[in-house]
Structure formats: C-alpha cells, structure tokens
Amino acid sequence: MTSKNAVQQFDISIVGGGMVGAAIALALSQAGLQVALIEKQPVQEFNSQSPADLRVSSINLASEAWLSQLGAWQALEQMRLCPYQRLQAFEQPHSIVTFNAADIKRNHLGHIVENNLLQLALWQQFGANVRLFCPSSVTALQQSADSATLTLDSGEQLSSKLVVAADGGNSQLRQLAGIGTNGWQYNQACLVALINTAYPQQDVTWQQFTPTGPKAFLPLCGQQGSVVWYEEAARVKQLAALTPAQLTQQLLNAFPAQLGEVEVVASSWFPLARMDANRYYAGRVVLAGDAAHTINPLAGQGVNLGFADAKLLTELIIDARRHNSDIGSAPLLQSYQRKRKPANLLMMSAMDGFYQVFGNDITPLRKLRQLALSVAARSTMLKTLVARYAVGIE
Ligand SMILES: Cc1cc2nc3c(=O)[nH]c(=O)nc-3n(C[C@H](O)[C@H](O)[C@H](O)COP(=O)(O)OP(=O)(O)OC[C@H]3O[C@@H](n4cnc5c(N)ncnc54)[C@H](O)[C@@H]3O)c2cc1C
C-alpha cells in the first residue's frame, strides 16, 4: 500500500480529464508512458434512454481520424453520434450557400457528438498505464529543474517530468504556473437548447446570420437536435429564464422556417469569451485545449483545435521518449508552442473577423456579407476550399 505521504512518481501528470486531457492521457498511455490523470468530476455512464447532453460539439474529419486511431471513435459509435453531410449558411432563407460532403469526395463533413459521451468513450479505453485521481483537484504546484510536483486535495503528492494543464478555460494550473492571458468577453452570449423536432433524423447543420447574431441548428440522433442562439448577453439571460414551453414559442418566432415544429427539452446559456494564453508553457507545465485558448464557438472549432494541440504534443513526447530524451524539456515545449500558437491564433482571428462581418447591421458590412455569401453560392472552387478547411483537411 502506498502511504499518502510518499511522493508518487509518474512520467506525466494531466490535470483535467475532459475531451482534450483524456485524449492526451490515452495517447501517451498507449505508447507505454505512466500517466496520472486528475479530474474533479466523475464522468457519467451512458444510458441510451437519457436525453442528449446539452453540451455538444461538431467534430471535424481530422479529429475523427485521430480519435479512431486511439480507438475512442469506435466506442462512441456504439453509443450515439450524428453525422452530417451538408452545412448551410445564409442570411435570407431564399439564398442558402450549401457545402456538400460530396464536393470534397467524402461521405460526411463531420459529426455532432455529445461532449460527455466523447469523454466517456476516451475514458473507457484507459488501461493499466492510466491512474485516475477522481474526484480530485490540485492544491499546489512545485517545480524544480527536472520535475514538477502536484499536491492534491487528498494530500497525495505526484511527481512527474511534465504536467499538462487541460483543465479548461478557467485553468487553475495555468494560474499556478504563472501564465497570463489576453482576451475579452464578447457582448454576445449564446443560449443552447436541446430540442425534439418534427423531422426524422437530419443530415444538415445550418447557421443563419442576422444583425443581432447567428442562429444555428445542429442535428442529433433520431428526432433530436441542438439549437444555438447568439444574442446580446442580457437578452440571452432573459431567454434562459423561460420555461421550456415559453422558450419553444420564442424559438418558433425567431428561427427560420427550416427549423420546423420543435419543442424544447432543456436549455442553458454560455458567455462568449476569447482567451489566448501569453505562452503555452512555463517550466514543466504545458497548456492544451481550452486552458491555452478559448474561441468564439461560431464555427464549432474549439475542441478541434484542442485535439490538434493534443495530437502534436503527444507525438513530440512519444518521439522524445523513443530517443530517451527529456519529455518535459524546454526545446520540446518550445517546438509545440511554435507550431500550435500561431495556428490557434489564426483561427481565433478568423472567427473574430467572421463575428464582426456577420454579427452587425452596419451598411457596408451588411453589403460585404451579402457579397461574400453570393460569391460563395456561385463558386464551386471556393465552396470546396471552405469545406476542406472546415473539416480540418487543409
Ligand atoms: C456553446 C458552446 C458551443 C461549442 N461548440 C463547439 C463545437 O461545435 N465544436 C467544437 O470543436 N468546440 C465547441 N465548443 C468549444 C468546446 O466545448 C471546448 O473547446 C472544449 O470543451 C474544450 O475541451 P477541454 O477538454 O480543453 O476543456 P473542458 O471541456 O473545459 O474540460 C476541462 C476538464 O477539466 C476539469 N477540471 C477543471 N478544473 C479542474 C481542476 N482544478 N482540477 C481537476 N479537474 C479540473 C473539468 O471538470 C473538465 O472535465 C463550444 C463551446 C461552447 C461554449
């Protein structure tokens, strides 16, 4: 039996077992590294009769390919996920730009998955190389030249060559490591509602742009779907306080006819923030996923960027281990930061440009977005390019 006072040794400690942290734990454990995973909330078991999780994500082809390699995608397929073949963008329902999977010679553009099921699918793959500390959180971080030590709320101490902070946008580890951030809160917030729809399972996700903000539909399994309604924060809070029946009525009034007959099952709201960590590592602590960057969810890229971080970081670590090098060395972490920070910033800035052009009613910008949508509607080449970029294969 290990005494609680003895320092426990691991190759790597990961704080946060959400989608990104769990994927990092799985990839590294499969390569033979000894991993400690610290998560404050247990993951819920799957129940096919229970309604979908309110938090859903659009997972692109690049993320799907990596998750398949890890064996988690196959587990998710045994639970619930919804592929979509078409992606539509429009301002007026009569001028819709449609991106088709066939345009990029694929049979789908992506999947809408429930966040808790993807997390569960990853956790189900953990073998003996992952030691789970859950429910648990960190109370202190100490760094030396060749290791980092975490103290948990249980009093246990874990020492490793590298600590990954994958504990989300409000990362406590990022603060303990002394890494600052840049960013702001957008004026808008978004309401997310799980709905039952009158249509059989749909193969299309769409987004309508209006001067007060976008309105989006994401298909889920069977006759369920998710809607995302972006509005000024005060209005979103008002909407979130309504009963499901009242919110259903508001949705039917505000959303385009494509939505059809719906009823709200559950809803919640989220503030919208942009955050970029000043650096992606400090000593032997490295950031991944939302702990490093949060992005406007407008184009559903957040966790896809997190998986791209996770894939590169784990490849660098596995390569270092293969060469018997230090898996927490500054050159390794520098190389990770050099590749991922500019890529994430580029996507964040593109989303901000999008938010500015599509989210207001200033006449020149209105004309610009009408022009952009009409050019996109006519140009097969442009549509193909956008679709390839959106699914993560460009
Ligand atoms: C409304 C909305 C819609 C979105 N839609 C999409 C989409 O369609 N596609 C997409 O790619 N992205 C989307 N995103 C973004 C996506 O949800 C995030 O990018 C993603 O959840 C980040 O994953 P993560 O694992 O980095 O962090 P999180 O999901 O935040 O996970 C962090 C984990 O760390 C744990 N934790 C936190 N603090 C501690 C602590 N101190 N100790 C131990 N554990 C801790 C938490 O319990 C959690 O399990 C959306 C976001 C919002 C708000």
Strand element count: 21
Our Rg estimate from Cα atoms comes to: 22 Å
N- to C-terminal distance: 51 Å
Helix fraction? Answer: 25-40%
Helix vs. strand class = alpha/beta
Per DSSP, what share of the residues sits in E-state strands of 2 or more residues? 25-35%
Sketch the major β-sheet: 8 strands, mixed
User: What is the highest CATH level, the class of the largest domain?
Assistant: Alpha Beta
Average pLDDT over all residues: 91
Tally of separate domains: 2
List the uncertain runs: none
Task: Summarize the structure in words.
- With 394 residues, the chain is α/β, with parallel strands linked by helices.
- The protein has 2 domains: 7-49 and 118-182 and 275-353, 3-Layer(bba) Sandwich (FAD/NAD(P)-binding domain); 56-114 and 187-273 and 360-390, D-Amino Acid Oxidase, subunit A, domain 2 (D-Amino Acid Oxidase, Chain A, domain 2, 2-Layer Sandwich).
- Helix content is 35%, strand content 29%.
- The chain has 11 helices and 21 strands.
- The strands form 4 sheets. An 8-stranded mixed beta sheet has the order 7-6-15-16-17-14-18-21, sandwiched between helices.
- Flavin-adenine dinucleotide binds next to helix 1, strand 4, strand 14 and helix 8.
- Flavin-adenine dinucleotide binds at residues 15-21, 38-41, 57-58, 115, 137-138, 166-168, 172, 190, 192, 270, 289-290, 297, 300-304, 306.
- This is FAD-dependent oxidoreductase.
- The chain crosses the membrane at residues 12-33.
- It holds the Pfam family FAD_binding_3.
- Its cofactor is FAD.
